[in-house]
Design goal:
The chain has a single domain, classed as START domain (Alpha-D-Glucose-1,6-Bisphosphate, Chain A, domain 4), CATH 3.30.530.20. The chain is built from 5 helices and 7 strands; from the N terminus they run E-H-H-E-E-E-E-H-E-E-H-H. A 7-stranded antiparallel β-sheet has the order 1-7-6-5-4-3-2. A hairpin with a 5-residue loop joins strand 6 and strand 7. The termini are far apart.
């Protein structure tokens, strides 16, 4: 069994509360679809209000190099700590043989007018070769796009 954790940080020149508002609730799937549908696909809320138990279906861009379409469930949403976790429960990396594929988003204050988005992937898979398929690139694209969106929104 191969277990792994990958993480990356992205600095945003906006208060952590403004950045978290883009990651919390149902805002994140909406922004992924609005800002990144041509790269990451479409994120659709199947059920839920953005809290624990919310189900999101992601339809990948046809012909993209990712793991394909998948369904995620929010397993943790902590507004106080500004942490959201979701796990793939169907398709995507699960269809490739992963027993766990979890994404975590943390928004941390960095002074009054800046924040860091820490994106993390945790995974478990039997096949060591398949572990090499895990990439931070999609979560880095999300952090970059959401950060840019929040900064532009604040400057309007």
């Amino acid at each position: 069994m191969v277990r792994g954790v990958l993480s990356s940080d992205h600095l945003v020149e906006a208060p952590a509360s403004a950045v978290w508002s883009a990651y919390s609730g149902l805002e994140l799937p909406r922004l992924i679809t609005e800002l990144l549908s041509d790269v990451l696909g479409v994120a659709e809320v199947v059920q839920g209000d953005g809290g624990v138990g919310t189900v999101i279906r992601v339809t990948s861009v046809p012909g993209s190099a990712g793991p394909g379409d998948f369904i995620d469930v929010y397993t943790k949403v902590d507004d106080e700590a500004r942490v959201k976790e979701k796990e793939t429960v169907e398709g995507g990396f699960r269809a490739l043989g992963f027993s766990l594929y979890r994404m975590r988003f943390e928004v941390m204050e960095k002074g009054e007018s800046a924040a860091v988005i820490r994106s993390t992937v945790e995974y478990e898979v039997e096949d060591e070769e398949k572990a090499k398929l895990v990439s931070m690139k999609p979560l880095e694209l999300i952090a970059e796009a959401v950060g840019k969106f929040v900064v532009e929104k604040r400057n309007m």
